[in-house]
Amino acid sequence: MNAYDYSLRTIDGDALPLETFKGKAVLLVNTASACGLTPQYEALEELYRKYQDRGLVVLGVPSNDFGGQEPGTEADIKQFCALKFNIEFPLASKEKVAGAAAHPLYRAIASELGEAAAPKWNFHKYLIGRDGALKASFGSRTVPDAPEIVAAIEAALA
């Protein structure tokens, strides 16, 4: 599986081929605005600001799959992220990330890593290397600035 073979849409509805990020490491995160884990947005933005000059992209993928915790429109989500967390990292349009109806990228990841590595809740994180290959998977409760995530990002950017 190579992430560059897939496309999403931006929060504004424009095409977002993942090959746009070729040569960069991408931390792919399914997000939600009304979740107990929503404060992770702050640490995700800090990671993005710290490492973006070295080639890291944090890519948020809003999803209403878990607990109905992202019920708003793309415009609502964009406004929430800007006002509450001053998010500058890119956001995709709202997508399904789990189960048979999941976006093809998430189905491919689950196929490659196994169903156990599929998102079970909001804020699951996948690290994609500069070559588009999956490098790591981190569960929802692993905070963005956890040592294992920082070490994986450092290795992917080396």
TrEMBL record:
Keyword Chloroplast part of the UniProt annotation: no
GO molecular function: peroxidase activity
BP terms from Gene Ontology: cellular response to oxidative stress
One Pfam family it belongs to: GSHPx
Active-site feature positions: C35
Keywords, ordered alphabetically: Oxidoreductase, Peroxidase
Domain Thioredoxin as annotated: residue spans: 1-158
Superkingdom of the source species: Bacteria
Entry-linked Gene3D superfamilies: Glutaredoxin
Membership in a protein family: Belongs to the glutathione peroxidase family.
Protein name: Glutathione peroxidase
